[in-house]
Structure prediction request, 286 residues.
Amino acid sequence: MIKEFALDPDAITSSYREFCYFTEKFGVSQGRVISAFPKKWRKLVCDSALREHKGKVEFSKIVERLNKFGNDIVFDTSRPSGEGSQTWIDRALVEHARKPFAAIISATAVNHPDVLLKDEIDEENPRFKAARQCAIPRTAQALIGCAEFLIRHAKIIKLVDPHFDPTKPRYQRPLEQICSLLPVSKAIVEIHRSDEIANDELIRRFQQSVSMLPSGVKMQLHIYEKAQMHNRFIITESGGLIYGVGLSDNEDGGGAPDEEVTLMETAVKNTRWNDYSKTSPVAIWP
Prediction:
């Protein structure tokens, strides 16, 4: 559901109005993020704005706005920065050949099918268009696929579902899918669920799923009173998704065949992140 774009710094700095027009279309909640490519992308934007507006208020307004961007807008996916002596567009094309962006947005016309000229950008352009809500089949792959971009680059993944139980295949398969996407790092998977089952029994059940965790990944179990929980989410530092039915699949049949998944607005994500950061885990593995 989230597209990563390479954005030419020179494409957005001709005016403060143009800067706002482009950048307001980005953010995890919009289904689009600006790749932090190269790593000094923000500096390149400042340099471009300085060339255009040196000594003018326009420059300071662009820089001030840029400094407010969080990691939900300019997203670092640890891409290499390429050869610094090359132009931005040449570096972007090399990186795109290695690991494709959704598209490259350029200030100048380039004869390449995946490069969009900045004047071609609007919500109806199929390469730029993004979905903020999707109706999907309730398979583990589809459920977790919606959150794949966030999961692959997260340090903390909060799974919120009052009935999450890894001993049941319909929950086990989505958890396995998540684990398959996690980098071998210090990621933490937090499970937030209700107390409808005794804590000792829940801990025993979750203990059985520890073997699926990649090396270096930890899992935490957080318990709440049943009355406190209802909605289902996957939340990371950078964004979140709302699941209408829950984080269980329907691959065995007998339940709702489809699911609606919605990207969280930033303010809602921040609220729910804080809500589910207040409790201490009842167990941590390994």
Remarks:
- The first helix runs from residue 16 to 23.
- The chain has two domains: 3-120, 133-285.
